[in-house]
Amino acid sequence: MPPDQPDETWIDVDDSHQEDYPSDSHSFTTSIASSVQDYSFENGRRYHAYREGEYPFPNDEAEQDRLDMVHYIFRMALQGKLYQAPLRGPVRRILDLGTGTGIWAIESADEMPQARVLGNDLSPIQPTWFAADAAALLESLYFIIDDIEAPWPYSPAEAFDFIHQRNMVGSIADWNGLFAQAHQHLVPGGYYEIQEFRVDFQSQARRGPTLPESSSIARWQRSLQEASSRFGKPINVVHTLADTLRRNAFVDVTEEVIKIPIGAWARDPKLKRLGVLMQGHAIDSVEPLTMALFTRVLGWSEAECRALIAEVQAEFSASPERQQLFVELHVIHGRTPCSGV
Fold first, then answer.
1. Read out DSSP for 38-93?
2. Which ranges are annotated Acidic residues under compositional bias (predicted)?
């Protein structure tokens, strides 16, 4: 079957939306061990302790606020939805890979009360309490600390109906290995969904989409790709992941590319609002994506990093309307073959 071509569309935003898994002893023990909160601090940012150094981005409160904001951006871009996969039949078990603050897992458990939702991450930054009226949610939602590139501990009886991944580019060394494990731990006909930005900011105002090589954003992007590649976890890979799913025996793989404006230059009022949020997110993303990779991998000093960060943030602040900057969101999903298919 020939590879499907991605559907490339501008979004029509609907912003009406405002807003038993822990059986593995290793993961469960890790999740409650005090050592996972023995964080490291570097250049004014806080980083995870479990498997220290594997994830090159911070986990402090500022980063958690950024991740929650990008969750809201994703929901706006997806018409208020949490996912696009056409899930079949009763969904009983869901796995949220790299759950971060846990906001996607929490909202999924709330919207699908029949399902049990597990979120895993290297950092224990998920909520540890809920309101008294959310007792039922507690029965269907779990968070554990685990490394998704290590062997998965779940038994065949714990197979998932749906596995979700978001904001994981730059943190995975072996995508084939990840997708192979996911395939093994999905029920027949179970879905895997990817939601990722292509970290390649572009300009609609130019004859071609590429930014001038002299722009601070373009220079930063090139250095970010170099650093993440040398780190062994390239950040700009989402355009390859649909084919990687196919190579790992997923079928009915589809890909949609959604162009999201940066700044208030779009004519459509909803796109304009989304663009303003995306501009703020782009500005806030520069420092956390830069500091560890550039200092640890490229050997930059903190002062050199902060000088470039300031230039890039200033360019994101000043030029989106003139250059009509945009970024692409890729939404990819595929399923395992059904029994006998």
1. --EEETTEEE--TTTTSS-S--SHHHHHHHHHHHHHHHHHTTT-S--S---S---E
2. 1-13
